[in-house]
Design goal:
Elements: E1 5-6, E2 15-19, H1 23-32, E3 38-42, H2 52-60, E4 64-67, E5 70-76, E6 83-88, E7 94-98, E8 101-104
Parallel strand pairs: 1-8, 2-3, 2-8, 3-4
Antiparallel strand pairs: 5-6, 6-7
């Protein structure tokens, strides 16, 4: 926390990522779209679980890019977030995505090892 992994929106003109597919993740993506250049929305499933009104607003926003079936394998950067390593859960393909920040909105168990669902 405090080095680019965050839960509050303050990334004017930069590319940021949001992890999750529920109401909170989509709400954060919509908020970030007001400030960021682009918002990548990583979700490990084929569709979002958020209520329909959030899904529609996210899909209608050209600054928000859904990345379905994407699991964050690693957060990259030394002192601050510079990107993430992403695994496509369907194909297993690994890619690297440059980001200025990452916002995590996933449901975790009470004792996560940094929420293996990332």
């Amino acid at each position: 926390m405090g080095r680019g992994v965050s839960h509050c929106a303050s990334y004017d003109g930069q590319v940021v990522g949001v992890v999750g597919g529920g109401d909170s993740a989509l709400q954060e993506a919509l908020t970030l779209a007001n400030f960021a250049e682009q918002v990548l929305l990583f979700h490990n499933s084929e569709k979002f679980t958020a209520q329909n009104s959030y899904r529609k607003r996210v899909l209608d926003n050209s600054k928000i890019i859904p990345r379905y079936q994407s699991a964050i394998e690693e957060i990259l950067g030394d002192d601050v977030v510079s990107g993430v390593r992403v695994r496509n859960v369907a194909s297993g393909e690994i890619s690297q995505v440059d980001l200025a920040g990452l916002f995590v909105y996933v449901v975790c168990s009470p004792t996560p090892s940094f929420c293996k669902v990332l």
